[in-house]
Amino acid sequence: MPKNVPFLGVFGAVRDASGRLLAVVEVLLPADRHEPEHAYPISRGTTTTCPSSS
Predict the structure, then answer these.
(1) What is the structure's pLDDT at 8?
(2) Are the C-beta atoms of residues 26 and 9 closer than 8 Å to each other?
(3) Do residues 37 and 51 touch, judged by C-beta distance below 8 A?
(4) What is the C-alpha to C-alpha distance for residues 11 and 28, in angstroms, rounded to an integer?
(5) Residue 40 in contact with residue 11, Cβ under 8 Å?
(6) Which of 4, 30, 41, 42 has the greatest number of C-beta atoms within 10 Å?
(7) Strands of the chain, DSSP E
(8) Whose CA is closest to 1, among 43, 31, 44?
(9) Residues 12-50: pLDDT tens digits?
């Protein structure tokens, strides 16, 4: 990434239905090229996404 460009750190974890951790990932993205989107589980097997307000 070029100097003086802010970055966005993203951490994600995947769990099975019992809560056991299956995978973890962390990435750094140039914040001037990406817009965050948040996902919130509503119930088992269903997820909703909400664009960020920034």
Answers:
(1) 86
(2) yes
(3) yes
(4) 9
(5) no
(6) 30
(7) 7-15, 21-30, 37-43, 46-51
(8) 31
(9) 888 888 889 999 999 988 888 877 777 766 566 555 555
User: Six-digit token pair at 47?
Assistant: 């997820």
Name 37's bridge partners: 51
Total length of the chain:
54
In which residue are the tokens 């974890």 written?
13
How far is Cα 35 from Cα 51, in angstroms, rounded to an integer? Answer: 8
Which one-letter DSSP state was computed for residue 33? S
Give the type of residue at 18.
S
- Is pLDDT of 52 > 70? no
